[in-house]
Amino acid sequence: MYNGDIENINTIAFIYSLTISMNKGIRMKILITILGILNGGYMLLDGVYVLLNGKYIGPERPGPWSLLFEKRNIDVFKLGPLFIIFGILWLILIYGLWTKQQWTFTFGIGISVLTLWYLPIGTLISLIVFGILIFARQKLGI
Question: Contact, 77 vs 95, CB < 8 A?
Fold first, then answer.
């Protein structure tokens, strides 16, 4: 083995030991943070993209969520501001979570419920965050 390999193994072992020693609340916060950045960051980026380009990131036809709006005769390509707002709200949730704001639990439940329409990935992320908030509220310290 080379010295570089030993250093890499030591680094991995150190990170693993930190992860194991973290309490469950911290791990749950990290998970909500990752999911919130994925969902909120993508919604924010997609909202700006559709405002600038008249289409969403990806295929010409938006995802399954668009059917919910089209059935109500809403032009999904005009929803950029809605996506930007939802993206910012998810990022605000992360801020509230890490700074232990007293509104975080209610805000998180609200944004999770309000994002259930964002099929399929946004719905899954919302359900996971909702579940963590409900079942791990005490461990999260909120």
Answer: no
